[in-house]
Structures are given as C-alpha cells and as structure tokens.
Amino acid sequence: MVGRSERAAEGVAEWAGDGKSNNERVAEQMTEGVKPEIRRHLENDPFAKSLGIELVEIHEGYAKCAMTVRPEMVNAHGSAHGGALFSLADFAFAVACNSHGRVAVALEVKINYLEAVLPGTRLIAEAKEEALGGRIGLYHLTVTEESGKIVASCHATAYRKKDWFVDK
Amino acid sequence: MVGRSERAAEGVAEWAGDGKSNNERVAEQMTEGVKPEIRRHLENDPFAKSLGIELVEIHEGYAKCAMTVRPEMVNAHGSAHGGALFSLADFAFAVACNSHGRVAVALEVKINYLEAVLPGTRLIAEAKEEALGGRIGLYHLTVTEESGKIVASCHATAYRKKDWFVDK
Amino acid sequence: MVGRSERAAEGVAEWAGDGKSNNERVAEQMTEGVKPEIRRHLENDPFAKSLGIELVEIHEGYAKCAMTVRPEMVNAHGSAHGGALFSLADFAFAVACNSHGRVAVALEVKINYLEAVLPGTRLIAEAKEEALGGRIGLYHLTVTEESGKIVASCHATAYRKKDWFVDK
Amino acid sequence: MVGRSERAAEGVAEWAGDGKSNNERVAEQMTEGVKPEIRRHLENDPFAKSLGIELVEIHEGYAKCAMTVRPEMVNAHGSAHGGALFSLADFAFAVACNSHGRVAVALEVKINYLEAVLPGTRLIAEAKEEALGGRIGLYHLTVTEESGKIVASCHATAYRKKDWFVDK
Prior knowledge:
The structure is a homotetramer of 168-residue chains. Chain A is α+β, with helices and mostly antiparallel strands and 168 residues long. Chain A has one domain (4-164): Hotdog Thioesterase (Thiol Ester Dehydrase, Chain A), CATH 3.10.129.10. The first copy, chain A, has helices spanning 4-10, 22-31, 36-43, 46-50, 82-98; strands at residues 54-59, 62-68, 102-113, 122-132, 136-145, 150-164. In chain A, strands 1-2-4-5-6-3 form a six-stranded antiparallel beta sheet, sandwiched between helices. The model of chain A is unreliable at 1-13, 15-19 and 26-31 (pLDDT under 50). Chains A and D meet through α1, β3, β5 and β6 of A and α1, β3, β5 and β6 of D. β3 of chain A pairs antiparallel with β3 (102-113) of chain B, so a sheet runs across the interface.
C-alpha cells in the first residue's frame, strides 16, 4: 500500500514519458530511420497485403502508407467502406507504434470520418507519435486524398509489451 | 442571434432524442423487425461480403453479424488484424444505424481491443442503439467469440442524413 | 524475441481477461459489495466534493454517483458545462475501476453528449465494467436525468498499476 | 429515395469541408483574429471561471487556455483530477469550435491521459481545428505543462447549429 503523496509524485510513471517535449521527439523521429529487419517484419502483414496497402515510409514513431480504394471496398451506399479506411489507418498506426522494434498492440483507436471517398481514390495515411512512455504510446493519424484533402482522422493508443520482435 | 436562455432551453434539440427513455427504446427495438428491402439494401455491402461477413439478425436499432477470421486476415504478429475486427464491428454498426431506412453515415467510432484473436475463430458482433435523435445516433458494440468472451468493444456515433434509401 | 505463433497464442495476455464471460462478471459484481476502507478512500476525492458529487453505490466493477448542476456549472451558452458532466462521469469511472482496491488510473475516456442539460437538474452517472484484465479495464458509463433520459455516454479505459491502496 | 451513385457522389456533403486542404486552413486560422464580441461571449463561461481557467489566445479555429491546478482539484490518489484536466481542455475546445461566431456544441471528446499532474502545476491547453464542414468540426487538443511536457491529448467533434451568437 502506498501513500497519497508517493502516488502523486510517481504519477503514472509506469507508463510515463521520457521527459522530452513533444517537439523534440517529433524532430528526432523525422531524421531517424529504422533497421531493415523492423521494416521487413512489419511489411509482412497479410491483411494489409490483401487490401493492396503499401508501406511508403517508416521512421521511429512515424509511418506513411498508401492504398487505392478498389471497387469491392465500398459499403451499401457506394462509398469507400469505413472498415477499409480504418484498415489503412490501422496499418500505419501498427507500423508507427512497432517502429521501435518492441511489440506494441493497439489498445484503442478512435476514427472520425470527414468525407465520403469514391472507389478508385488513392489514399495516404500518416501516423505520428504524440507521446511515448514505458507501456503506452499515443498516435495521431490522418487519411488524406492525394490532393491533401483530409477524409479521416484517428487518435490511437498502443500498449507496449515486454517482448521485442528484433534483437534489442 | 439567440439569447442564452433560449439556447439552453432548446438545447441540442436539432439532434436530440424523442423523449423516450433508453429502456423503452431497447424494449421496442428488440420486438420490431424491419422491412425486407432495408435488410436487402444493407446486406448488399461489397466490402463486408469480400470478408465473408454475414448479417445474422436485424431489428430497428440493432444488428448481429458474424465472421470467421481467415488465415489472410492477420497482422505482422500473427493475430487477427485490428482492421478485420473493426470491419466486422463497423458493418454491424452500419446495419444498426441504417435499420430505420434513413441514410446514416459513421461520424466516429472508437474501438477497444481486449484480447488477441487467432485465425479460424468465429466472431459475433452486436450493435445496440443507445440513443437516437433527429441527426445523431449513438451505438454500443461488442465483438465476442462464440464462447461469449469479449474481444473488442466499440462506441460509435452516426450522422443521419435527410435521405431515405427506402420509401419512407 | 518471440516467434509469431507464440505471440499469437499469448495474445495480449499481459492485460487479458480472466476467461469469464461478460454476463457472468456483471452478475457477480452486482451482488458483491466492497470493503468499507475502499469506499472511504475513493469517496475522499476533493474535486468531486467541490462539485457536490455523491457516491451513491459501489460494488466491484460498478459505481453510481449523483450531482445536481449548480448555476455556476454552465457554459457560455447557458447549458451544463461539458466539463461538469464529464467530471461526474469520470468520478463514477474512477470509483468503478478502483473498486477492486488496486490503484487504477484513467488511460482514456470518450464522452458523447446527447442532450443539453439545464442548471438545477439532478444527474445520475453509472459506470459498469465491460472487461477486466491484468493491466487494463474497460468501462461503459451513462449519465441520465432522474427521468431516465440519457444525456451523455462514455466508454473508458483504465490502466491498473501494481500498487494496492488497501491491504490486498 | 436516392440511388447509390448519387449518394456516393454527394458523400457526406451535408457536413463536408470547403475543399481547402488542412494546411491552407491552419495557415489562415493562425493569422486571423476574431471579433471582440465573439471573445467576450466565449470568455463569459461561468464554469471555466470557477476553475480559474483563462482564455489566453483565440483565432478562427484555434484557442489557447491556461489553468493552475488548485489543491482542491485532485482525486483520491492526490493527482490532478481527470475532470479538472478535461474541463480545461473542453473549454479550449469550446472556444475554438465557437470561434467562427456560429453556435457549436460538443458531440464527443476523447481524452488520453499521459502523465499524472501535481497540484500547483500551471497547464496550457491548445485546440486546433483539423477539419471544418457545414455541420461538423474536428479538433485536436493538447494539454501541456509550461515545460512543454504533454500530459493529456484530446480528439473532439463539434456539431454546428444553425444559430449564430453574434450578428453574422
């Protein structure tokens, strides 16, 4: 049993950040690449492949992916299916949160749909790390058309396990 | 320009409910079916079909769907892909929020992942209407294994357009 | 480094559930009370007290709280402030996720606002555990008026620390 | 009743954007101020005032607010209460989404808590418009300590009513 002040001081330090500001972190992640085996492991995603999703770019805490909406990826109203858009975003999220080489799984993802998307449209999803702690990472994602028009946006939490899928 | 008290009195009535309690509504929706053309329209979902998703049950404000996780529906860690689970849940959500015959589109969906799911597992998604207003509907969804074990849960908002996809 | 199949089998077991179905759990939690020192500790919440929030009922994985919207708890449009409604719901969430005696902190909460609420209204928040694992708990909350009309709904994740705030 | 292709073409245009890219919009909003009566109206928020929240900066689609965590704003564990942090963020959100002079109400807000915050800490909340349509606006918010350390992050949807609270 711990007292109130200890808990307050410790805070959520089990999963807390590394003391860097968000801007410092974003600056870093944009300049650092990742080991080739990390990219290889993450690209080997059968569901993403089955939807024709490509991994365009990966840095530590960052991923960019692309997908063209196929005719069969629509819903009953004839627009791109929410599940297809989500799958593209979710893959970018998975790559970004696993980009450190440590196994990370999605805890929760919220997606906001902003525009209907027609079949044939090429979409770009970008995932950026907002915060990274020992157990938890937070990511902000956008899905845009090639024109830059935003069609969906996500805010997602990853849980970082103790395992590494590459040698540490 | 409206004054403060008018606005407060009116509240968010543009998209507000019908004065029924949630329990009254849930009781109703469980006993009412829907017109066959509504079911037919919603079942005709190309992306859901491509994933083998079945519409098991539909009532006003309610849907139950099923999907078996195929070997290609996994992620780089070998578990069922977050996008595949989401797509099943999203289809149940789409059916539930369109079950009234009026065109409804997803505004936002939050999914929480609770357990990893192995390929070959049969999953059931259930969507229940928590609240329904003129413009907005709120839904709670669960994805469970056949044993009843919950593997994911969603909380989702639909935006109801003015159009009806069946004759009113 | 672990292989794909091990990871899939283990899944997210670090924070996974106890194998009980959700219905079994809900049935249990409704009949079990909690130790008096757990209730005492959780009731001693200075911010909740400052807003006049009362803890009405607590069981394992469940809490019911109440608050009357005071004249100063409104926003610029004259309705009950989103922050005030959230604070009521968040307190119910905190009580429910800490009801086991183990320190739990909020990871994320989504709130959906369904109706504007007038000052003077008495509100009830109920938090129910949807799923509980070693590290993670998931909760569904509603805020209703005394008539039963739902005015807000939340879906919230707790992170369970290793510490207990009562003797285990 | 509308056909599939019409609906797809129209998409969610009832609440869709204005065709500007997100970057164009962000660039604009940072340079435009707002009418003094808009600021005056939004600052007159009784609940925010009762918590000592200040409106530091407002532009179209943007707000910055500040609050110092008072001793009574803590939870049972002695850290800043989730409801207090949320209330700060929610006020920044309300200001940003109402900054156009048109009445906007919160539809949903997700908050992620990243670090425990001690009483006495001065916090800054910033709200930025990610997308704006006829009926819907999407906002991304951060709550940081003065050091720049991020302690919470929100992703929030506003519903824009037909009324204006200033002369259009």
